[in-house]
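Give me the fold.
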Amino acid sequence: MKFVTFQTGDQQLRAGWIQGDLIIDMHAASGGYLPQDLLLLIADYERYADFISSLKPFRAGDEGVYELEEERLAAPLPRPLSIRDFYAFEQHVKTARGKRGLDVVPEWYQFPVFYFSNHLAVKGPGDAIEVPPGCGALDYELEIACVIGKEGRDIPADRATEYIFGYFIMNDWSARDLQQAEMKVGLGPAKGKDFATSLGPFLVTADELGHELDLEMKAAVNGKHLSSGNVRDCYYSFGEMIERASAGVTLYPGEVIGSGTVGTGCILELGEEVHRYLKPGDEVELTIEGLGSLKNKITAKSR
């Protein structure tokens, strides 16, 4: 299934799923049985799964049914419980560090590493991305992310897929100049990352994709194709990432685990000779096979 959060004409956020060219508002269409947002659904999905499976196809005009093309999609999880972003594609790590004259440290091959991003600065499809104050090197990052579907602690990698609810595209926007300056201190990233993370357009359930992910990944700026990769090229699996994240820590439904940038998946890695850093007016489109396309336009800081 493709779960979504969407905004209706009355500016209210609703949640549900895609059925063909329709959006089903799960709360309204179920007569109030299903919850009003995806976090609540995910947290108690075992309770709701059989009911959802038993539903007959909806038709236009039914209660809680909307035309997909007439509604605006938001981030599937506008306020996830957390966002951990890993650094799991070897090609990206090698190239990005190489551009700074650095080798890959041996520890990178010993365990997957991550940082916490700002889960309160999530953007959805079509949302404007403001250039953060003082930034002259705004970059996109082409990533895939999974959403934790049930509570667990010390989860072994070979069982971690049991804890994945689904996947979506993630754009880990980066202010490269701010990031590089602050990380010289040996802490971060922080202000180079905390202004925006785009998620969407759908949260596709794991049973639709399977767990042997072989999905093409692409990025374009203003219609110009720049980045290409595949999820299968990830050095660390989501199982290994979840094992690391849950070591000594409880993971909860609705937490997001990002893969890190795929090889060639950002301007830092490609080099400014391939494309300059982003400016107001630019449109960035990330596409992952089976997960749709996620578009955002860059704007100047609003006054």
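The mean pLDDT is 96.
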